[in-house]
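Hi everyone,

Forwarding the result from last night's run.
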Amino acid sequence: MQRLMFYCQHILGMGHLVRSMEIVRALTKDFQICFINGGEIIKGFDIPAGVEVINLPAIKTDSEFQELQVVDNAFSLDEVKEIRKNLLLEIFEQFQPDILIIELFPFGRRRFSFELIPLLERVKSTRSSTKVVSSLRDIVVTKQHKQAKHEEKVCNLINEYFDVLLVHGDPKFVPLEETFSRVSNLNCEIYYTGYVVQKPPINPILTDEDREILHSDKPIILTSVGGGRFGHELLDCVVKTAPLLEKVIPHHIQVFTGPFMPEEKFYELQSMAENSKNICIRRYTPYFLNYMKKAELSINMSGYNTTMNVLTTGVRAMLLPFTGNQDREQTIRAEKLSDLGIVKLLTTNDLQPDLFAKKIIDYLQEQPNQISFDFTGAENTTKILRQLAIKQKVA
């Protein structure tokens, strides 16, 4: 069985990790996998059987992406950088992968060049037979005034080090050229895989709390903000709106704050909700998709994975895009879906309890449009990498 090394660095939310792990789940039948996690460990996160996971000393960032921060303060950032760089090189030498996948880089995560460039240089300098692959979501973060310089650097890095680019999207919805103008200047092979989607766990081991809600006849309004480091204004509004909804609709409001929400904010939300009988606030569940399949309405941010969950379950959804760091990725995705009548687009101006309550009540009476994209991204990725491995073996 051929060996595959997969590097993933999540620094703010958990979307990159979720998507990467769904890809890995599909790859396990064909490859021996070493998964490198550079972000904070998520308690209870489902890891496929047989996958070796190595957690680097974790690094995160603030909501405006201004600075990298060490999760465990036992070492300084410079010390952690050096430890991580050496550890990556050591893992590569020991594992000797046939394929190395690096998620997002060089379209993003270039602040991790301190460890990725030495790794790529090691692959190149040893004349290794390792094929290097970039794993990219559907929409690239644009750099506005620095876009031309950004794209020049991406082209140089791709052409210097990478053999294949996998775009986990459907070009009928968002072609890569829409957010990266120099696709024609990339010399590597480029494949659209379709969207990578999550599937609900088979035979889930539900807690009593999960069972009570998921097996109840009571309708659900589901609310989440991904990892929980941002989106607090949406959760504040939902909690303040709950008493207004309690009087007019029978729904149970289930809130998942995300595993990275600061402790003080989590307890603040619980305190705000303590007098409302129609709302429950929890951090995280591995059965999020089960909740979404049951929900009559889902209120979320519009990250890649949550949006895919909305599309594959067909749930009625209200989406508030993340706009920190002048990032338009979630806005582009949500606006396109709103224009198609598939979701209801929210802005911060909508986050006023009286107005928000009315929007929820009105939207529960509407039936959103449905659309079918290519949702076989994980399976297609496996086929592409299997063929790449075959070509490499023959060569």
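Residues 213 and 351 are 26 Å apart (CA to CA).

Cheers,
N.
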